[in-house]
Fold this sequence. Notes:
The chain is mostly beta strands. The chain has a single domain (4-105), classed as 3-layer Sandwich (Rieske Iron-sulfur Protein). The protein is built from no helices and 9 strands. It has strands at residues 4-8, 16-22, 25-31, 37-41, 55-57, 60-62, 69-71, 88-94, 97-105. The chain has a 6-stranded antiparallel β-sheet, with no helix packed on it. A 3-stranded antiparallel β-sheet has the order 5-6-7, with no helix packed on it. InterPro entries: Rieske_2Fe-2S, Rieske_2Fe-2S_sf. Keywords: 2Fe-2S, Dioxygenase, Iron, Iron-sulfur, Metal-binding, Oxidoreductase. Residues 4-100 form the Rieske domain. This is Dioxygenase. GO terms for molecular function: 2 iron, 2 sulfur cluster binding; dioxygenase activity; metal ion binding; monooxygenase activity; oxidoreductase activity, acting on paired donors, with incorporation or reduction of molecular oxygen.
Amino acid sequence: MTASRVCALSELEQDAALRVEVDGVAICVVRDSNDEVHAIGDVCTHGDISLAEGFVEGETIECWAHGSAFSLTTGKPLNLPAYEPVPVFAVTIDGDDVLIDPAVKKEI
């Protein structure tokens, strides 16, 4: 697979998340308070809840349903009830385009 354009960088609000789908994979794209763009699996590992509907703070996103927070850099849960990590994908910025290939996991 090759990286697909998922949105424009200018479409991503700071400290907010956007749900996209690439090749059938649901991905949560986040622009954090440091202006870095992250891409993680969109489904909370505790329940079938979209993380893009959650709350972004610093380098974490919190599931709105049960309160589990996940690291945007590692995908690891930072508190219960979730205990399984979500996948983290490599992000490429090309001009104003945000590109993600769901087959390429980010090296942690």
